[in-house]
Amino acid sequence: MEEKKYAVLIDSENISAKYISTILDEMTRYGVVTYKRIYGDWTSPQSASWKNVLFKYSLTPIQQFNIVSGKNTTDSALIIDAMDILYTNNVDGFCIVSSDSDFTRLVSRLKESAMEVIGMGESKTPRSFKVACTIFTALDLLLDQSTDMNSNYKSDSNDLTKTIYSTGSSSDNNSTNSLNIIEKISLDSIENSIIEIVTENNNKGRVTELGEIGNRLQKKYPDFDVRTYGYSSLSTFMQEIKAVELRRRNNNTVTIHLINNKSFRDKIVNFIIEIVSEYGDNGIDLGLLGTKIHNKYPNFKGKEFGYSTLSKFISSIPNLTIVAFDSTRNYVYINNRKK
């Protein structure tokens, strides 16, 4: 099978020269690099570090003078070249290397022409650019995966976890400039997605293979990379997902299966009935009930038992009824109580 051909286009004004080896090594995973172009003002002192590696890595420098101070003309030159290369029909995909969200529309346009677009940049790259790409790779994580983690905190989005890595000396750790904030998909979101995939296949009578999990996660989260979480392989990473187990067939194919914990389900059901009973004829708001369930059993996910929502799971319990008063209020009652 012939390898795919890619054009690698680098924005030198937004990417450090220290990443060049990482960029080209990473591209060997996807195919052959036929274009290696880098854009910048080569008369500027800031481009000195890139000048030292141009010939070593056979990069073609594209000169773009910054005629007006504060105006980045490099972006325009890269975009024009990308479209010229697109219309030659000589490549199967592009690698756009930048931490600048200004290339988001370019990526979308290339994908509209059925191009695969690999995005590379630092973890600070705006998410709009990351998710526009077919795949996005954080170069700073690849360069140094052994960086010590200082602390974690959840963002306002349920899908994202922000990890703060120290990039300065210990004496600088209180300074904002010494911190590099890295966004990554939360494990809870990934686990929910995996459960959905396995449940969907189970409903269709299909077995879920490890390769399918990797492909579908990549499509849903273009910036998903197991190396972000400190793992070198998807199979090792999957051991973090408590709701599933991995099984190996004779042909060494790895399949994914939900762990059917009936005793855990029975505990959840009995707890729900007990809480609803305490509220008697008044019933309990569905949202409040959900909070109480997760306070008692933080690891509970209805999707592990084949239900897409909490309301579906509760509706499966014979003794309970959900009554909708309007589009925002749903109450849960014990059967034969007030409705």
Automatic annotation (TrEMBL):
It comes from the Bacteria. Residues 186-260, 264-337 form the HTH OST-type domain. Transmembrane segments: none annotated. GO terms for molecular function: RNA nuclease activity. InterPro entries: LOTUS-like, NYN, OST-HTH/LOTUS_dom. PANTHER family: HTH OST-TYPE DOMAIN-CONTAINING PROTEIN, SLR1870 PROTEIN. This is Uncharacterized conserved protein, LabA/DUF88 family.
